[in-house]
Amino acid sequence: MTQKYLLGIYQPDGEAPPPEVLDPIMENLAALNEEMRAKGVWVFAVGLHPPSTATVLRAEGDDVLMTDGPFTEGKEHIGGFTVIRAEDLDEALEWGRRLAGVLSPLPVEVRPIAV
Amino acid sequence: MVEEVFRAEYGRAVSVLTRVLGDIDLAEDAVQDAFATAVRRWPVDGVPASPAGWIITTARNRAVDRLRRAAKGAEKHAQAALLAHEPEEGEVGDVPDDRLRLIFTCCHPSLAPQARVALTLKLLGGLSTAEIARAFLVAETTMAQRIVRAKGKIRAARIPYRVPRDADLPARLEAVLAVVYLIFNEGWLDRADLADEAIRLGRVLAELMPDEPEVWGLLALMLLVASRREARLRDGEIVLLRDQDRSLWNAALVAEGQDLVRRCLRWNRPGPYQIQAAINAVHSDPPTDWHQVVALYNQLMAIAPSPVVALHRAVAVAEVEGPAVALLEVDTLDLDRYHLFHAVRADLLQRLGKNPVPALEAALERAEHPAERDLLRTRLGLAAADQQDRADDDHQRDHDPHPDRHAAGLRRRGRRR
């Protein structure tokens, strides 16, 4: 029996880094994803558009309220995530460590998936 | 009798049951059930030949009963059936790995340090939530929440129940030793029960990992520091090492600690705990050989440098090279938030005939422990009176036509007033 984990990537709001910085990072990220796939760990991975593109919906009675922007205001938002399948937290943390290394200095949050 | 077995065997029983049941809460409930049964039965039936084995077997039977009773779905039935039939190899005998696994689970680096301490005391030490809350001066509900949250994380995030692989072992062991030392430090000044619990855990670790010199180093360090416990406080006030009544030192603990330090030296695989133990071993053999203490601090600075170590080193340097050299070293340290930094500066300033009052005030502002605050207040009172005397002397000297000739005499008179 294995457990799924979310590896959430937090990034500061604002402009993306210039290509000469971003491109090698994306290459390393692609390589890590490939390695995860090869090891049967990789389940799913996405990168997100900036939080300014988000829309928040909240049902109140029969209405659904719609507001612009991300749900929480803050200086950092989730920029993407990878879902992996691991034996236990130690294995998940090992992959999380690799991901954080590739994306340094962005923090990576490792969180078990309930269902 | 049950109480004694409880202290000695609770951790072992919970460890075994956690492996068998795969769940810490179920294991704790089962073991507590078994001890409750022992309280009723042992006075009547007599104490079994192997109390620990009896507790573990009873706990397991209780868990099976509980699971059967609670079984609503096929899965729980299956779990109960599994428990009832699966022969657990070595279950009743000594399975040292089980306690080791539980220690590594409790001290997993993904848990907050406070949670590691609380879990270790609860699951391995058998302390109640109320006892742990009292020891750390937090409300029982706060401590209960902390423990529930940590156990929830262990379960949901699947913090593994196993000894880390060799590659991870040094870092993970460091976390375990840090937790034990934290428990010791919390207790050594005036909570003997916590300090004793830390030493007990240290002995368990040494038994389980006899080939790790740092485990023995930590045990030796705790024994040597604990040996001076009775001399450490007088009327609730801290007594510095040099002023302690050595007849109050515990000779047995000193001997055991020094013996372990010698064993560590033969190993020749030094680490921070072993070196700190060696420093304490030197102090335990008065008069302190300060040259040796400085050499040991140099070694400690080489493998585990930190401003706090540098501060302690400077205290030893003051004894060898004098307070002026030590003060120069202390003043380079970035430790403004640490009360001992200011207390050490005050002592060095005073020995150099300078005004220690501002440094003592800074130390008092930052110290938290009541006994430490009392000591600082006393020192501050003496220093302030001394400064007042000197100010009076200076005032008189201003009007003295022959200040050089009289200053020394005036100062002595001033002091006596």
From TrEMBL, chain A:
Residues 9-99 form the YCII-related domain. It holds the Pfam family YCII. SUPFAM superfamilies: Dimeric alpha+beta barrel. It comes from the Bacteria. Gene3D superfamilies: Dimeric alpha+beta barrel. Belongs to the YciI family. This is Uncharacterized conserved protein. It comes from Lentzea jiangxiensis.
TrEMBL record, chain B:
One of its GO terms (biological process) is DNA-templated transcription initiation. One of its GO terms (molecular function) is DNA binding. Residues 172-264 form the DUF6596 domain. Residues 408-417 have a biased composition (Basic residues). SUPFAM superfamilies: Sigma2 domain of RNA polymerase sigma factors, Sigma3 and sigma4 domains of RNA polymerase sigma factors. Residues 380-417 are annotated as: Disordered. Keywords: Sigma factor, Transcription, Transcription regulation. Belongs to the sigma-70 factor family. ECF subfamily. This is RNA polymerase sigma-70 factor, ECF subfamily.
